[in-house]
Amino acid sequence: MTDAAPGASWRAALELADRDQERRGAAARTRKAYAGDLARFAAWCASAGLRGPEAVDVKAVRRYTQFLTAGGAAATTVTRALAALRSGFRSWKAAGLVAGNPAELAPAPRRPQHLPRIVKPAEAAQLLERIPADDDALALRDRAMLELAYGCGLRAAELVRIDVVDLDLGEGAGPAQVRVTGKGERTRTVPVGDPAVDAVQRYLGRGRPALRDPAADDGALLLSRRGRRLSTSDVRRRLDRWVRHAGLPSDLHPHALRHSFATHLLDGGADLRAIQELLGHAQLSTTQVYTRVESTRLRAAYRRSHPRA
């Protein structure tokens, strides 16, 4: 099937879905990805003679996912396309363009389970303690940034959105904590441990003032060399630098620190619901991947250790 150009009905529907994503506060990357997925679906529908969302039923959605799979799309790609369709049909249903959401009834393909990369506590300590706590502003910033990433289980996108006013370092009667803005603009409050508090205080005292540009300062906690808010690519790049400096495996990325935070909590006996709340997962099923990680680790220990394994 050759894709055709979507007609006016599809173009209007695509614009409506994107405006709805923007209204709901979706991240720019999410909006772009969903817009691309919906545009490809609209082109496929146009080729199949389906002139607007109202002409689509669950059979059409299933045919489309089969079309993607036959074209070599990975299960993750098909799953994301379905997520975009569900979101699009929700917007179109709310606007009265369609009566239901056929994408909700289409099954997602089975995705292979890839266990997340986990940093051992000794590796995390090696990484963090090799960052010098001297008067170098960038080192002070990076130590604070990575202590928060590992100690609070934060995504890179959450780290760079933290403002100074989001921090409560426990200087009064209460515990240290940070207000975090996660996916879907959901906010949560996460405890901050003593090592992260110490690192952030050193950075606020000696690092941030050296990096701050009064003309560019928007209140961001983590500032670049030019005094502007860091980006997620900056977080990855600086982590790569310190991973090499510590002599650790090069596949260590910011999300691995988040995975390790959750796994080490589970190892220590934390309740899965508490871990869900700390990570900001909307669904408990997302958090349950860590129980699979733990059971895999235990099975490996059993096989190594038991004479009848």
From TrEMBL:
Residues 114-303 form the Tyr recombinase domain. The keyword Cytoplasm applies. Its main location: cytoplasm. It holds the Pfam family Phage_integrase. Keywords: Cell cycle, Cell division, Chromosome partition, Cytoplasm, DNA integration, DNA recombination, DNA-binding. SUPFAM superfamilies: DNA breaking-rejoining enzymes, lambda integrase-like, N-terminal domain. Gene3D superfamilies: 1.10.150.130, Intergrase catalytic core. Residues 1-93 form the Core-binding (CB) domain. The active site is at R155, K183, H255, R258, H281, Y290. The keyword Cytoplasm applies. It is found in: Cytoplasm. Site-specific tyrosine recombinase, which acts by catalyzing the cutting and rejoining of the recombining DNA molecules. The XerC-XerD complex is essential to convert dimers of the bacterial chromosome into monomers to permit their segregation at cell division. It also contributes to the segregational stability of plasmids. PANTHER family: INTEGRASE_RECOMBINASE PROTEIN MJ0367-RELATED (PTHR30349:SF41), PHAGE INTEGRASE-RELATED (PTHR30349). HAMAP family: Recomb_XerC_XerD. Belongs to the 'phage' integrase family. XerC subfamily. Forms a cyclic heterotetrameric complex composed of two molecules of XerC and two molecules of XerD. This is Tyrosine recombinase XerC.
